[in-house]
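ok trying again, last paste got cut off:
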Amino acid sequence: MLAGAALGCSAQDLPRRPVARSRADALAVVPIMMQRILDLPEETIAKYDTSSLKVVAASGSALPGDLSTRWMDRFGDTLYNLYGSTEVAWATIATPADLRAAPGTAGRPPRGTVVKLLDEKGVEVKPGETGRIFVGNEMLFEGYTGGGSKDVVGNLMALVQPNLKRMLAYSTVSHVGFLFLGLAGGNAAGYAAAMFYAISYSIMAAAAFGAIVVLSNRGFEADRIDDFKGLNARDPWMAGMVLCIMASLAGVPPFLGFWAKLVVLRAALQGDMLWLAIIGIVFAVVGAFYYLRVIKVMYFDEPVGAPIVARDDRPLRLAFGVNALALLVLGIFWNPIMVWCQQSFIG
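nice, full thing came through this time. structure:
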């Protein structure tokens, strides 16, 4: 579909040079690029000829309905919304006609692709019920995530994988982004904030993976978020420790993670980068959902699976408990660590 003179470029460049100069007939965008383009002054957009575009393929995040309508009203009915993932390629595609009829729709499965909603037992749900999305086509790709733990039912692969280990691993990218908020200031205070964030995240990450190790050692499946359903009913102490970890990773006060995010956001503000701080706050709120979901299933969902096996692992549980509770204690007494970080750079 994207054959021809396809072109990728930044949001700022689109209405200026490449499309008009190259006479590109296809363009790949993400919704935020579309928003930034449409926010440009009309006289700026009008300077450049984009009439050669036949296909504008949007993917990467949810496409708001009003955004798709605004885009087609301005640039014509050439917008296609691609919904999928790295592992399954596309699941559905919405054509311009689909987007006109139902703005923001994910569209329909293209030829050769099967999409089904399945329940926890792998049974297809009835219309109107919720389930997990599974996709089957000739482009399933397991190499990106290792493939071994990717859920597959028949020849259908899960579009969204609620795997806790992978969630924690991927979230490292966002935490590195917060660390760079401090470094972006380019001054001693920013470097100290980044150092404080690195120390805090190291403690949180050790506790998070420690929880998986402790539970696995006791015969408890701890790979998927759903494995934590009803954990409070089976092991209240363990659920309390995991709550401390997830709350800290989500940035809930008074845990250590809250202060770590606060100091790097303050460093960005002190570096006259309000826009960057706002972006950081938005992503902090979005990221908190994933961690708080673990707390929700532990305390509000019914237990599933076999009971936790009792083992003589007191030293391991003690070390883990100290690590997890440190997130609360250090959240209350975080200032000495911050002072030490500041002295490392200010002298």
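cool. The beta strands are 6-7, 26-29, 55-58, 79-85, 89-94, 114-118, 132-136, 152-153, 156-158. The chain has 13 helices and nine strands.
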